[in-house]
């Protein structure tokens, strides 16, 4: 296990605490603060004033001190007494008042736990098999690699502003218990001391099975390969259409062969940055007799390859209370048990129990209401409407009533289509949605049948949609049909895929059909005594889009800077020159964007555009001069000039960053700010600008006004004018009038912020 301080940065917690205070006093823009708290693992809840704190637990590994710290956070800072183990091996604490979130982060940090990048558009918690390092069947201990990979990418500039989240899993053998095929990146150990590299998998919106990118990746190539895929995502994924910005859509966009070619280009470049093996020497081993763990905890106490034992412990939908956590911490210390692991089926596993201690340990665990799972216990659910702002149905309330039965079927219930319970790869998966029947909203579940996330991944076939109130009867009917119609030893997956969607539509027809007379009975969700409704918990995102583009550009420029420095050391002048040009282009484009202008095709044209937009700052002429000197140094291979030019380019990017921050006071690029000036404005036509440029232009004009000044903007009617109206309101301005005149909408705004 890596030293606990590896993942910790107390200074950033102090800065986060200051931001909370600034936000509380109205000194920080809500969109900017939202991005910051997500970066630190703090999610909003349906309930006002409280938040969810997600703890990053690489590979699910927790020691006694960490269990005790989580218990302390529950008893001292949370308004509830349960944490949740998630399907990514994280720990989530709910109902934390915003003012207490920094105290939670600090308590966790002292125990070696971080919330950094557990949420947001970053590399999320890296998952592994719950038996990693002790499984009899593994070729290699992936747990140490999980921690090293986490440390390698944590807080890296490259991953601070990705187009969307990025998920990685590591499996120690071909069984792929960490489910690499459903991840953005999956690494699976082969029996020849190499790894299979998978990419582009995912669930939620349009589930996809990952493609094989390389079949025999060597261990010294692991980090460059992962970084190459992250870089592809960062450069090419769609930042404008959030629903289309996962890596799986990039595979779809390029096609598998072209995606592999693009990967190899980035891979060769990334390998230059890691000329030495960044991982500790990996310990390979020969598999021994034993049972493959599977994607969750085993059903029974399992012998480890080192002769000790692992005890699986079933949790109800991942719930652990403070007494259980504190009790487990004491037990780990008293019996010298190595650790516990969280698993992707929302359970835990005690690792490293001596055979002679098994009976006593089991009794102590029983006293804490913790015991091994029974047949039928593999029921998984996301929070749904209990806490999640995206939840449509009460997934947890339903899931508590369900069982996988004597066939131990895997059931997963998601409160919306996003798939946090991984319903696409369950035997029986359900995702919540609202269906309109006879003018009424009926809380419903769409069925997914016969999914399997392991090595030969199969996405569940689509079944009918049924009212939530009939979900229990539906599960019972499916279990009965399987028990009576499946062939000998035929799995539920094989049976379902063989039967097909039409069969299940006919089988469940009476349960899926709703007559007008049924409405009174089907318009309520489980646990609710009022008619069903979907709460509108969303908001405008124009400001967030503007800040994301600028911040991501500077993050990518920092990444190019790291590559440039390595290439200079290696005397690879062509590659270093390319990095310098990219740095200048990225930072210049971001600044021009905040000026409300589009990025030209060439970096030379960018210099001219900057000079036109910002004549007083002279950044355009400076950029032109840098490009000329850079070209001369490159053509003459003058290494001395090239090295001297490096600091000038860094100074220019710093200046560009300062100007960006001055134009958008909510941006935080880590650069000291300079004072900005204000001017006057009256009426402006912005109808030719697309989102988010129309808002950027409007915001720039508002900043030129004095408090109380009034301006009228012209925008394209429809969604563009609606988006910018919402965003200007969120900035604190007063919308006096909004008048639609055909294709144009006239919006009059009074400066109040």
UniProtKB/TrEMBL annotation:
Q: Which residues form the UPF0033 domain?
A: 683-751
Keyword set includes Kinase: no
What keywords sit in the KW lines?
4Fe-4S, Heme, Iron, Iron-sulfur, Metal-binding, Oxidoreductase
Which is an annotated GO molecular function term of this record? Answer: metal ion binding
What InterPro entries does this protein map onto?
NIR_SIR_4Fe-4S, NiRdtase/SiRdtase_haem-b_fer, Nit/Sulf_reduc_fer-like_dom_sf, NO2/SO3_Rdtase_4Fe4S_dom, NO2/SO3_Rdtase_4Fe4S_sf, NO2/SO3_Rdtase_FeS/sirohaem_BS, TusA-like, TusA-like_sf
The cross-references to Pfam families, in alphabetical order and at most eight, read: NIR_SIR, NIR_SIR_ferr, TusA
Q: Where is the Nitrite/sulphite reductase 4Fe-4S domain?
A: 119-268
EC number(s): the record gives 1.8.7.1
Nitrite/Sulfite reductase ferredoxin-like domain residues are 43-109, 304-367
UniProt-recorded name of the protein: Ferredoxin--sulfite reductase
Q: Which organism is it from?
A: hydrothermal vent metagenome
């Amino acid at each position: 296990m890596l030293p606990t301080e590896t993942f910790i940065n107390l200074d950033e917690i102090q800065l986060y605490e200051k931001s909370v205070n600034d936000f509380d006093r109205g000194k920080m823009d809500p969109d900017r603060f939202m991005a910051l708290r997500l970066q630190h693992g703090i999610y909003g809840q349906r309930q006002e004033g409280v938040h969810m704190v997600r703890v990053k637990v690489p590979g699910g590994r927790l020691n006694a001190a960490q269990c005790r710290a989580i218990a302390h956070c529950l008893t001292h800072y949370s308004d509830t007494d349960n944490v949740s183990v998630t399907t990514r091996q994280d720990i989530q604490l709910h109902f934390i008042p915003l003012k207490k979130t920094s105290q939670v982060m600090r308590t966790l940090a002292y125990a070696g736990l971080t919330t950094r990048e557990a949420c947001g558009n970053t590399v999320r918690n890296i998952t592994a098999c719950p038996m990693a390092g002790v499984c009899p069947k593994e070729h290699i201990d992936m747990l140490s690699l999980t921690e090293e990979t986490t440390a390698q990418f944590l807080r890296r500039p490259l991953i601070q502003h990705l187009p969307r989240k990025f998920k990685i899993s590591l499996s120690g053998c071909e069984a792929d218990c960490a489910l690499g095929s459903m991840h953005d990146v999956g690494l699976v150990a082969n029996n020849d001391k190499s790894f299979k590299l998978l990419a582009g998998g995912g669930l939620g919106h349009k589930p996809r099975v990952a493609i094989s990118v390389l079949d025999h990746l060597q261990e010294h190539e692991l980090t460059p390969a992962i970084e190459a895929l992250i870089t592809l995502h960062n450069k090419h994924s769609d930042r404008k259409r959030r629903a289309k910005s996962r890596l799986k859509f990039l595979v779809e966009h390029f096609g598998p062969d072209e995606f592999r070619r693009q990967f190899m280009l980035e891979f060769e470049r990334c390998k230059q940055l890691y000329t030495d093996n960044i991982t500790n020497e990996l310990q390979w081993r020969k598999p021994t007799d034993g049972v493959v763990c599977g994607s969750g905890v085993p059903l029974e106490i399992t012998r480890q390859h080192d002769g000790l034992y692992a005890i699986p412990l079933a949790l109800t939908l991942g719930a652990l209370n403070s007494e259980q956590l504190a009790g487990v911490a004491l037990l780990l210390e008293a019996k010298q048990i190595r650790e516990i692991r969280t698993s992707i089926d929302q359970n835990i596993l005690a690792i490293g129990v001596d055979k002679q201690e098994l009976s006593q340990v089991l009794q102590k665990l029983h006293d804490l209401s913790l015991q091994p799972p029974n047949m039928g216990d593999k029921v998984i659910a996301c929070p749904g409407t209990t806490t999640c702002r995206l939840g449509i149905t009460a997934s947890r309330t339903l899931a508590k009533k369900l069982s996988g039965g004597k066939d131990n079927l895997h059931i997963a219930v998601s409160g919306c289509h996003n798939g946090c319970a991984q319903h696409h790869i369950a035997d029986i998966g359900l995702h919540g949605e609202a269906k309109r029947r006879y003018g009424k909203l009926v809380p419903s579940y769409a069925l997914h049948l016969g999914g399997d996330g392991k090595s030969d991944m199969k996405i569940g076939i689509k079944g009918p949609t049924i009212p939530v109130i009939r979900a229990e009867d539906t599960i019972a009917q499916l279990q009965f049909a399987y028990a009576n119609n499946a062939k000998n030893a035929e799995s539920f997956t094989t049976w379902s895929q063989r039967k097909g969607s039409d069969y299940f539509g006919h089988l469940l027809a009476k349960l899926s059909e709703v007559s007008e007379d049924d409405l009174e009975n089907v318009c309520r969700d489980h646990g609710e005594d009022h008619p069903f409704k979907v709460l509108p918990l969303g908001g405008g995102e124009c400001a967030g889009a503007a800040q994301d583009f600028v911040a991501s550009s500077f993050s990518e420029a920092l990444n190019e800077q790291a590559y440039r420095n390595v290439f200079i050391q290696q005397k690879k002048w062509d590659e270093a020159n390319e990095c310098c040009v990219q740095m200048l282009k990225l930072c210049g484009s971001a600044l021009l964007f905040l000026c409300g202008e589009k990025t030209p095709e060439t970096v030379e044209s960018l210099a001219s555009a900057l000079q036109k937009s910002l004549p007083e700052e002279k950044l355009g002429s400076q950029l032109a001069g840098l490009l000329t000197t850079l070209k001369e140094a490159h053509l003459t291979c003058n290494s001395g000039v090239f090295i001297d030019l490096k600091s000038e380019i860094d100074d220019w990017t710093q200046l560009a960053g300062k100007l960006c921050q001055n134009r958008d006071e909510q941006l935080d690029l880590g650069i000291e700010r300079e004072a900005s000036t204000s001017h006057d404005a009256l009426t402006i036509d912005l109808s030719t600008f697309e989102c988010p440029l129309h808002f950027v232009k409007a915001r720039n004009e508002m900043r030129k006004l004095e408090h109380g000044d009034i301006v009228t903007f012209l925008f394209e009617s429809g969604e563009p004018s609606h988006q910018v109206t919402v965003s200007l309101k969120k900035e604190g301005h007063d919308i006096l009038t909004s008048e639609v005149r055909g294709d144009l909408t006239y919006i009059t705004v009074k400066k109040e912020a």
